[in-house]
Amino acid sequence: MATTTSQLSITAREHTNEKFYLMAQGHIGAWEACELQVELNKALDSKSALLVLDMSLVNFLSSAGIRVLLGTYKKAPSAGMKFCVACPSEAVKHVLWMSALDEMLLEK
């Protein structure tokens, strides 16, 4: 699974029964958040135990992107999964901290 828009690239790095690992790279604005939602929904259908989104190469995260992350976090348990964000870039870390979602979404 891989999708690319002009500002965002999402690639599956690992897919096992235990973990589905996605890597996002680029800009997540309103348009790209829709693409991210599609890819995360596909990953939720994988039935892995853990869905991880690596955001180390994301340079911008909009409120629409935050909505997608939060929605995925809330949907994951009904799919029998846990969801977390791994390796956030400084930009992502700052936005998650400012929105008080860092404790909830970041990999522990």
Class by SSE composition: alpha/beta
* CATH architecture label name: 2-Layer Sandwich
Large-scale geometry: globular
**What proportion strand?**
35-45%
Mean pLDDT: 93
Number of helices: 4
How would you sum up the major sheet?
Answer: 5 strands, mixed
For the biggest β-sheet, the strand order reads 1-2-3-4-5
- Reading off the top of the CATH hierarchy, the class is best stated as Alpha Beta
Low-pLDDT parts are none
Tally of strands: 5
| CATH level 3 topology | Transcription Regulator spoIIAA
Describe this structure in words.
The structure is a single chain. The chain has 108 residues and is α/β, with parallel strands linked by helices. It has a single domain, classed as Transcription Regulator spoIIAA (2-Layer Sandwich). The protein is 38% helix and 35% strand. The chain contains four helices and five strands, in the order βββαβαβαα. The protein has a five-stranded mixed sheet. Strand 2 and strand 3 form a beta hairpin. Helix 1 packs parallel to helix 2. The N and C termini lie far apart (26 Å).
Topology readout:
Elements: E1 2-4, E2 8-15, E3 19-28, H1 30-44, E4 50-61, H2 63-75, E5 82-86, H3 90-98, H4 102-105
Parallel strand pairs: 3-4, 4-5
Antiparallel strand pairs: 1-2, 2-3
Helix pairs in contact: 1-2
Task: Give a concise summary.
This protein is of the alpha/beta class and 108 residues long. It is built from four helices and five strands.
